[in-house]
């Protein structure tokens, strides 16, 4: 009994696991909102463009409603992002104290992009009725650009943790000079930024498309729903093959630059050539690989196709014990890697199906199986992204700054982190549930109002009334409560 | 160069105080506006006033944090090591408040609007209090440097912090009321304007009283800041007091636009006086700005970013405010029949196209 008590108190007092849990939890929540912030603006603009260019009232209504959803998700993303900037200091004060001069540089630029984004989101969302159509359209463009550059800046900071550069240290290990260009354009930045950006379009596209796929499964196959699905799914389908290529390149980069992470990803215990690609499986004590399905030589071959099977991969045992990740961390990294690759492949096949449908039959695949798969694709894409993020972060263990500073040296000395962790989990749970409820209520309201309402022209000054109202949606589901 | 970055930091703090401060203050008035019927009028003005701009105003906080940790990392580390409790309160409050406000806008039923309105309004008071208390902890020298954590309780529960928190809440409430008088007039609602004018006068008097007490507290509890305020920063202090009194006089006579300008100037000069008063220390009296400063490469990058912001963000920010003040950003953005339908079903029937009945 007293032993259990001691264990519990020791666990509560040790800030490291709680700080890691809190950071992971808040980041994993925030990262779901990032793709929506980045890609939804683009999709809305596509709809907006169609609306003005082709005088398509359905597209106009779609753009307006998407901009309303966007406002909600952007607000939630802004506040959860703020929590992160507090947490850098609250959870990792020693990391910020020592490395803030270098790590902070990309954020100085991210601040600008975030500012631009917040300002133009406000103008775009609130300006529907009062700005001229094309003026209004162009106020949406800075949102898309700021989303892209803002993401690149944040990822540059994370990439710097994987490939620290652009600074010199004195004998005490303090940063004495900083080269901002070197910090931002560190070796890991271009690939990591590309990976995250494409992920943002991929996940955002699949996520939005899956909502409309579900609606189409329930019979709402009017022009409005088909248009929404097509725009979102096309964005995702274009991003998916690109992501495959970027991801493959990154794996080789990790092989060359972060050998411990690579060994964990591929589950390689001892240094050798002809290393198999192990599907699933795990490591036990002393790095023995258990279970899984090995594909002979594939990991070596993928690491460097020019040398093929002969490519040597460093094993986990080759590193000093201090620098090795724990067994649990290796298993997490490997499993998450498999999840990311597996889901990525499935999503690629789905995008292929869609693409072939367009090329061969010139129309949207509309059978139930495809729509079911498309409905599942949204949540699966989110899981794939989360898994990929876990691979990056856990794969860097035990380092917070690769080969420079350990996580244990960066953490706060404050013993109450478990309290803030519990508080934040409760708050975020409420926030998540409310966000989904609010979005759901909005969509129900929109649906109840009908696919299209022609009595109100959206832009002022009001043009002459439209001659013919567009066709009513073909099918409609009865809403139960009045 | 560290001085230049410190000035940038000062400008950002002032901007946060006068822009986001007013949003927080609006939350305070929202909180005490009364029940759904009685408070409807003032809540309408508040919603309309801060709806399009609160998110852009909020970004100043991110900007402050980024400049602080990038340019003066030891200061940020020390503050977070010691003042983690009020910081956590502020962080959680900001989440609740932002989400509450954004959700309230799209919620339709009064019950949900009330719950979400509470989530917006209560933290609107808590967050400025926490921030004022942190400022008090810093100003009274309770944040040690060198990787040591200060007292987690007394660093923010002490006379200077309590006064700082109360002063912050009173100041943002005052600022917001002054803005809202002007906004209410712009919206053509003289009754609401009068409502906020009386409250602005009341809040202004409260600020005067709290500030007077603060001076006594500072004398006893934060001597370095007190001495600085009454030597180097004295002109600013006098300017702040004059502007504050002038704004109050204008408000009593009903001149909203002039009062708004003077109130902004008053808050800006008081915040500046505080920073000048504790100069050259970021953390009096143990960490100066120059000792805490990052290497020159980092400071240059920050200044370049600020320069870029000045040419890109500033025009956009001004544009947003001009559009907002010209009334080009109406509250609801774009009307959607879906919103009206739940607001008043009968009216919605009237505007629904023929054949709508089979849908509902």
TrEMBL record, chain B:
It holds the Pfam family Cyt_bd_oxida_II. Keywords: Cell membrane, Membrane, Transmembrane, Transmembrane helix. One of its GO terms (cellular component) is cytochrome complex. It is a multi-pass membrane protein. Residues 336-360 are annotated as: Disordered. Signal peptide: none annotated. This is Cytochrome d ubiquinol oxidase subunit II. The lineage of its organism: Bacteria, Bacillati, Actinomycetota, Actinomycetes, Propionibacteriales.
């Amino acid at each position: 009994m007293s032993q259990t008590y001691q264990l519990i108190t020791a666990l509560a007092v040790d800030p490291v696991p709680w700080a890691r849990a809190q950071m992971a939890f808040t980041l994993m929540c925030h990262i779901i909102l990032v793709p929506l912030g980045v890609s939804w603006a683009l999709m809305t603009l596509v709809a907006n463009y169609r609306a003005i260019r082709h005088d398509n009232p359905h597209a106009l209504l779609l753009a307006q409603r998407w901009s309303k959803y966007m406002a909600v998700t952007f607000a939630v993303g802004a506040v959860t992002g703020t929590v992160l900037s507090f947490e850098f200091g609250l959870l990792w004060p020693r990391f910020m104290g020592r490395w803030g001069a270098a790590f902070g540089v990309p954020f100085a630029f991210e601040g600008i992009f975030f500012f631009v984004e917040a300002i133009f989101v406000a103008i775009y969302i609130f300006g529907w009725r009062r700005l001229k159509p094309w003026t209004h359209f162009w106020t949406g463009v800075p949102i898309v650009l700021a989303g892209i550059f803002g993401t690149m800046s944040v990822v540059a900071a994370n990439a710097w943790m994987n490939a620290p550069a652009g600074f010199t240290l004195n004998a005490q290990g303090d940063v004495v000079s900083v080269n901002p260009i070197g910090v931002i354009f560190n070796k890991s930045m271009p690939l990591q930024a590309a990976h995250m950006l494409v992920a943002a379009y991929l996940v955002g596209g699949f996520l939005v498309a899956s909502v409309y796929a579900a609606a189409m499964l329930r019979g709402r196959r009017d022009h409005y729903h088909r248009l929404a699905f097509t725009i979102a799914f096309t964005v995702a389908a274009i991003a998916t093959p690109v992501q495959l290529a970027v991801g493959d390149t990154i794996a080789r980069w990790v092989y060359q630059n972060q050998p411990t992470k690579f060994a964990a990803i591929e589950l390689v215990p001892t240094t050798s050539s002809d290393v198999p690609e192990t599907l699933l499986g795990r490591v036990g004590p002393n790095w023995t690989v258990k279970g899984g399905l090995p594909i002979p030589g594939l990991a070596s071959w993928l690491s460097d196709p020019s040398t093929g099977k002969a490519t040597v991969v460093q094993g986990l045992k080759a590193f000093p014990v201090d620098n090795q990740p724990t067994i649990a961390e290796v298993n997490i990294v490997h499993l998450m890697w498999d999840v990311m690759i597996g889901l990525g492949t499935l999503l690629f096949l789905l995008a292929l199906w869609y693409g072939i449908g367009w090329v061969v039959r010139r129309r949207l695949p509309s059978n139930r199986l495809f729509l079911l798969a498309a409905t599942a694709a949204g949540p699966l894409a989110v899981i794939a992204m989360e898994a990929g993020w876990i691979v990056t972060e856990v794969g860097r263990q035990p380092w917070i700054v690769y080969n420079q500073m350990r996580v244990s040296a960066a953490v706060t000395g404050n013993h109450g982190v478990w309290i803030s962790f519990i508080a934040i989990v409760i708050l975020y749970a409420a926030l998540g549930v409310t966000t989904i409820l609010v979005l759901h209520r909005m969509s129900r309201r929109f649906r109840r109002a009908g696919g299209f309402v022609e009595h109100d022209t959206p832009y002022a000054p009001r043009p002459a009334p439209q001659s013919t109202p567009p066709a009513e949606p073909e099918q409609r589901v009865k809403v139960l409560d009045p | 160069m560290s001085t230049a970055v410190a000035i940038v930091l000062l400008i950002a703090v002032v901007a946060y105080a006068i822009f986001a401060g007013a949003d927080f203050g609006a939350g305070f008035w929202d909180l005490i506006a009364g029940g759904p019927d009685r408070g409807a009028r003032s809540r309408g003005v508040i919603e309309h006033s801060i709806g399009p701009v609160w998110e852009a105003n909020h970004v100043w906080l991110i900007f402050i944090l980024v400049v602080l940790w990038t340019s003066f990392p030891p200061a940020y580390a020390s503050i977070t090591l010691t003042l983690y409790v009020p910081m956590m309160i502020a962080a959680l409050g900001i989440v609740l408040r932002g989400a509450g406000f954004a959700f309230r806008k799209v919620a339709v039923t009064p019950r949900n609007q009330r719950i979400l309105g509470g989530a917006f309004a209560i933290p609107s008071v808590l967050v400025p209090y926490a921030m004022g208390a942190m400022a008090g902890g810093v100003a009274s020298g309770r944040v040690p440097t060198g990787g040591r954590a200060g007292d987690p309780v007394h660093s923010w529960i002490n006379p200077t912090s309590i006064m700082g928190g109360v002063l912050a809440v009173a100041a943002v409430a005052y600022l917001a009321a002054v803005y809202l008088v002007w906004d209410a007039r712009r919206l053509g609602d003289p009754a609401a304007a009068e409502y906020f004018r009386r409250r602005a006068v009341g809040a202004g008097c409260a600020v005067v009283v709290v500030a007077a007490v603060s001076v006594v507290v500072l004398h006893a509890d934060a001597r370095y800041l007190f001495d600085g305020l009454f030597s180097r920063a004295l002109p600013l202090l006098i300017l702040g007091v004059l502007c504050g009194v002038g704004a109050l006089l204008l408000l009593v006579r009903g001149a909203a636009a002039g009062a708004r300008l003077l109130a902004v100037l008053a808050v800006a000069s008081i915040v500046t006086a505080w920073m000048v008063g504790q100069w050259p220390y970021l953390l009096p009296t143990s960490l100066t700005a120059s000792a805490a400063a990052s290497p020159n490469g980092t400071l240059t990058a920050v200044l370049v970013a600020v320069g870029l912001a000045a040419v890109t963000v500033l025009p956009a920010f001004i544009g947003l405010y001009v559009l907002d003040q010209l009334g080009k950003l109406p509250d609801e953005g774009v009307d959607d029949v879906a919103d009206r339908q739940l607001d008043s079903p009968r009216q919605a029937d009237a505007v629904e196209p023929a054949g709508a009945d089979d849908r509902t």
